[in-house]
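Exercise 7. Predict the joint structure of the components listed below.
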Amino acid sequence: ETGVTQTPRHLVMGMTNKKSLKCEQHLGHNAMYWYKQSAKKPLELMFVYSLEERVENNSVPSRFSPECPNSSHLFLHLHTLQPEDSALYLCASRLEIASSTDTQYFGPGTRLTVL
Amino acid sequence: KNEVEQSPQNLTAQEGEFITINCSYSVGISALHWLQQHPGGGIVSLFMLSSGKKKHGRLIATINIQEKHSSLHITASHPRDSAVYICAVLNRDDKIIFGKGTRLHILP
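Solution:
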């Protein structure tokens, strides 16, 4: 148990659906991250937020829309996804984005299947 | 006991030294990742292994499935290699399990 929670843990959606993934941490961390873990592929960094401000967007398609309303919550809004978007989506948090002494704490992930 | 154990937890070495970081795991896996985290940013993936050995530049990763052990080697280490190195495995239930990381500091 890392202190980072994600809901739902599993999600099946059609290509025309709109859904949201939620990440929550009460560790007092100021930096939050979304990662994508596809089958047979390395972990990919998608978005980075620091103090609710997006600081990094790694060329992610616009059908993925992040939202960080406060430093404890991070959302990933999904719409018109493709089957190749099926993956494990991991959220992580860290005390500060530019800290040399901290590692990231990962949530358990949301397993997304797009039909 | 954690399902993924890394050693050492912290490592300080002089520039040019050969570095080895170890990862042992206790579960059946479909793949193992070595990840790098620099102080200023998110985690990036260095290697994904399911067998054998891979090499990228000065980095070499090996895995022994029978012994449930993997190593990450850095040849001719440089201060810019200073980072946290994380071993992560994907188990047979498709769950990703992270090691606690090894903090590497290379002195000029």
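Discussion. The radius of gyration of chain B is 13 Å.
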